[in-house]
């Protein structure tokens, strides 16, 4: 489990090492490295998801020079349901690195459909097991556009630290 300490509260994620071994190991390594500390929840869309793990205050991209992208494991049977945690990526299905999102609602359209560029989906690798109220509170903040990014919180929501629990 990983306990995220943020500027708006704490939440815990349980990783699914069985169904998403590559993704869970990748995410855990970022956490152990202290990578997430000082990054933002930089994209918040009420009724959809909250996203973080790749940008620092000022919308500075932190990902350059870190771990290589990983294989998309969206075909693992896990679904993008409320409280699930999935990897963000570009249009390339196998481009996920550190950015992740928490689903605020069931988002079945993000699930794996086929091994095609359009059908890969977004790999779920964990579940918020405590603190979903903190995630819901994030979804209520005012957002704006900043440095080419939309849906950015007006006031920074910072990941202060991530604690690895029970390893």
From TrEMBL:
Keyword Isomerase set for record: yes
SUPFAM superfamilies: Cyclophilin-like
Keywords assigned by UniProt, alphabetized: Isomerase, Rotamase
Enzyme Commission number: 5.2.1.8
One Pfam match: Pro_isomerase
Coiled coil region boundaries: none
Catalysis: reaction(s): [protein]-peptidylproline (omega=180) = [protein]-peptidylproline (omega=0)
Isomerase as UniProt keyword: yes
Entry's family note: Belongs to the cyclophilin-type PPIase family.
Name of the protein: Peptidyl-prolyl cis-trans isomerase
């Amino acid at each position: 489990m990983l306990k995220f300490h943020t500027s708006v509260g704490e939440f815990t994620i349980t990783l699914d090492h069985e169904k998403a071994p590559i993704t869970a190991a990748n995410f855990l390594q970022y956490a152990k490295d202290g990578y997430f500390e000082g990054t933002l929840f930089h994209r918040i869309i009420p009724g959809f998801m909250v996203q973080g793990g790749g940008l620092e205050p000022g919308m500075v991209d932190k990902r350059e020079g870190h771990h290589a992208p990983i294989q998309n494991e969206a075909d693992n049977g896990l679904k993008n349901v409320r409280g699930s945690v999935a990897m963000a990526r570009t249009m390339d299905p196998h481009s996920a690195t550190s950015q992740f999102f928490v689903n605020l609602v069931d988002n079945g359209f993000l699930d794996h459909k086929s091994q095609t560029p359009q059908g890969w989906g977004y790999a779920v690798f964990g579940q918020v097991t405590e603190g979903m109220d903190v995630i819901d509170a994030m979804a209520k903040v005012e957002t704006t556009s900043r440095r080419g990014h939309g849906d950015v919180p007006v006031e920074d929501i910072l990941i202060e630290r991530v604690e690895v629990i029970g390893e």
